[in-house]
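The records we work with from here on pair a chain with its fold. Each token is a code from a learned vocabulary of local backbone shapes. A record is reproduced here so that you can trace the correspondence yourselves:

_____
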Amino acid sequence: HRIPLAAKPGLISDFEPSPFRDALERVVEIRRLLPVLRLDGRYRELRVLDANEKTVARLRLESLVAHNPGERSPASPRERISVRPVRGYDAEFDRLRAFLDARSELAAVDETELEQGLAWIGVHARDYTSKLQLHLDASVPASDALRTILVGLLDTIVRNEEGTRRNVDPEFLHDLRVAVRRTRAALGQIKGVLDAERVEPFRREFAWLGQATGPVRDLDVHLLELPQYREALPEASRAALDPLNESVVRQHAKEQKRLATCLRSRRYRRLIEDWRDFLANDGEDSGEAPRAAVPIGDLASTLIRRAHVKVMRIGESVLQGAPAAEMHRLRIQCKKLRYLMEFFRSLYDAKAIAEPIKTLKRLQDNLGAYNDLEVQSLWLDAFAKRRGESLGVDTLLAVGRLIEQLDRRQSHERDVFAGTFGTFSSSAVRKSFDRLFHAERRAS
């Protein structure tokens, strides 16, 4: 697809409705489009003539200079020749291609200008992902494997710093927070592998960072939910939510300033620098840790089995009518199990581990939806109570309707839980866990 642009776009909403926008939205979703390459070019069009001076092919001589928007110095100019046929002169075109292919100073390329330009500045498509892409050896000491995991998570934190500080889009903060949460989970669950005394200060500092980034993330979620709140109300009542929208926008701006200050602070910089130095010690600080030398394959299976047992125990209590607080506890435990399985996924058969992870994710989606609905309901109730009489009757009624809808949806998610947990606790999934994580059957 190609479309003309009046101005440089940022979010998908900057595009007019079109097939281009529909195709792009499936890829970028809520992410902001950022410039990664600028190509400056000079072109000369040439016609290839036969003996009768008829055009049998066209050549385009291109001199391209690739720029990385984040750097001042562009790459050196690159030369390209593009060959285009003319209808009815296929044989002449083939002879021209053969002539050019025979020239030793030319090399045929199949890449587009975009693909070549990115390669020239050292940028590769999909070179970033928030997903863990680890390749661990089951025989390496647990301390080395854990450092590999933590270094990867640190890289994700650092790569999302600037986008979070500048509030480019909500996903920068989301990915940063997930990496922080995974770091805390790794330190909390994979114990006895690194020197506990050395690690404890870092655990406290990452807990501080998680708390410091929480308010903006919560408000990001509310901003994303506001359009759906409006759609859930009759059209005549939607304007009554304007005070809610204005309140969220103001609070978000205030909290974003605090977050930007936090990420520029000496405390944050010291945490990142000291943590990087600690992880670069190549196991020097793991000598006193009792599990430092244990092969990671054996330890991984042990940790995953224990986490799975906890999930099953809490889940069964929820099925038996345990208080709603147990749903929250189960959600946290499922998250810990999922992190362990993702940390150590490369140690096991890829196809065999995919299905247990998939069923766990369905359970997590259910528990996450239940928790999100509760958080939204409590937030709306707190907003109405905090603003009290300053809100109009229409706004209070609209908020009340939304709370009722959220409570109904939450009750539905609680009912759905029996099915999602039933699938996860089925004999087939239990057998998968037994086969995969039994100490004597672990894949190498």
Notes: The chain is about 60% helix and 5% strand.
